[in-house]
Automatic annotation (TrEMBL):
Name this polypeptide is given: EGF-like domain-containing protein
Organism from which the protein derives: Neolamprologus brichardi
Pfam families: Ldl_recept_b (PF00058)
PANTHER family per UniProt: LDL RECEPTOR RELATED PROTEIN 1-RELATED, VITELLOGENIN RECEPTOR-LIKE PROTEIN-RELATED-RELATED
LDL-receptor class B repeats: 71-113, 316-358, 359-401
Coiled-coil boundaries: none
Domain of life according to the entry: Eukaryota
Cross-referenced InterPro entries: 6-blade_b-propeller_TolB-like, Cueball_EGF_LRP_Nidogen, LDLR_classB_rpt
Length: 402
């Protein structure tokens, strides 16, 4: 089992790439945005591998890494000047480093020696630090760097170079093949013999040889905003989440609201009836049984002011209106995909309802005093009622009776 160092991910994107092999492998991306940390499938970026972390635990995350031994996520927060960790199921959130932590834009977990490395800098100190995973025995490994950002191939934003060194800080050297090619790298990660990089200045993601920086290759353009990339090889014929339990074994797990089929690795919807509700920062679901404290779905985050929601049971799809973003959106309950279906011509929409028989959505618009209809994908939009309305809000349909 191997794990590469994380890449810094800012309000743009931090990249942390690292392989996680247990038998045959699949890949997922662990990434951080300013107030959110997620783990998603590489091929299906709206499918969540882990519980998403957000406020109040995440205030301004800049970098994230993963410890496969204890199944913990580690991240640094520049606003609170802390390094925190938590289990991937969302429990055990705790602060491990909180003192003397300015501008911690680089973080890496040494899962073998059980150490934690991070970069920090201010006007007086520019260094790479190390401590035990619980934050004890903190020490500076390298000092005098020029705005270090990533580990343990640190990127220097001051002179636009990528360097590498031993974990004890010795043998610090510059990758000659990278000189003059990066403008503002914000993320680095290692997989196999390749070094992955993200350049915020050119909005590119690419690779090069980790040994000398040769074989420079741009893989993707126009990737802004990007700060943290972390690629993990995840195994095991599991349809959703695969967790290593040892170097050679793994356990399959399912996202919230789903359960493993008996004796199999595939997941199925395990909760047919649940309460779907929205809060300003997202959409959540809980079981109808008050005694059941589990979640019916992984919270849908990234909303600004979600005020109206409905559910298409046959398609297992959630629809919602976002007054803050002025959009109507939808997502699969397991969040394997997500999209905006209406993005323009919206006033103040608060109510939405799904006609699951005809395949239409209806919504009310207080701003224009109208009720509109469209296909489930937002096409063939049409004003149904435009007269005699005074700030319409809630709406419902009875598809059977028309």
């Amino acid at each position: 089992m191997e794990m590469g160092p994380p890449l810094p991910f800012h309000t743009h994107l931090y990249s942390t790439l690292g392989p996680w092999r247990v038998g045959e492998s699949r890949k997922f991306l662990l990434y951080a945005r300013q107030i959110e940390i997620r783990g998603v499938d590489i091929d299906n970026p709206y499918y969540n591998y882990i519980i998403s972390f957000t406020v109040p635990d995440v205030d301004n995350a800049t970098v994230v890494d993963y410890d496969a031994v204890e199944h913990r996520i580690y991240w640094s927060d520049v606003r609170t000047q802390t390094i925190k960790r938590a289990f991937i199921n969302g429990t055990g959130v705790e602060t491990v480093v909180s003192a003397d932590l300015p501008n911690a834009h680089g973080l890496a977990v040494d899962w073998v020696s059980r150490n934690l490395f991070w970069t920090s800098y201010d006007a007086n100190k520019k260094q790479i630090n190390v401590a035990r995973l619980d934050g004890s025995f903190k020490n500076a490994v390298i000092q005098g760097l020029d705005k270090p950002h990533c580990l343990m191939y640190p990127y220097h934003s001051g002179n636009s170079t990528i360097n590498r060194c031993q974990l004890d800080g010795s043998k610090l050297e510059i990758l000659e093949g990278v000189k003059g090619k990066l403008t503002k790298a914000t993320a680095l990660a290692i997989m196999g013999d390749k070094l992955w990089w993200a350049d915020q200045g050119t909005d590119q993601i690419g690779t090069c040889d980790k040994k000398d920086g040769g074989n420079w290759k741009v893989l993707r353009n126009n990737t802004s905003p990007m700060i943290l990339l972390h690629l993990i090889n995840n195994n095991g014929d599991c349809s959703q989440l695969c967790l290593p339990t040892s170097p050679t074994t793994r356990a399959c797990m399912c996202t919230a609201g789903y359960s493993l089929k008996m004796g199999q690795q595939s997941c199925e919807a395990g909760m047919g009836s649940f309460l779907l509700y929205s809060v300003h920062e997202g959409i959540r679901g809980i079981p109808l049984d008050p005694a059941d404290k589990s979640d019916a779905l992984v919270p849908v985050s990234g909303t600004s002011l979600a005020v109206g929601i409905d559910f298409h049971a046959e398609n297992d799809t959630i629809y919602w209106v976002d007054m803050g973003l002025s959009t109507i959106s939808r997502a699969k309950r397991d969040q394997t995909w997500r999209e905006d279906v209406v993005t323009n011509g919206i006033g103040r929409v608060e109510g939405i309802t799904v006609d699951w028989i005809a395949g239409n959505i209806y919504w009310t618009d207080q701003g224009f005093d109208v009720i509109e209809v469209a296909r489930l994908n937002g096409s063939f939009r049409y004003v149904v009622i435009s007269q005699g309305l005074d700030k319409p809000r809630a709406i419902a349909v009875h598809p059977v009776k028309g």
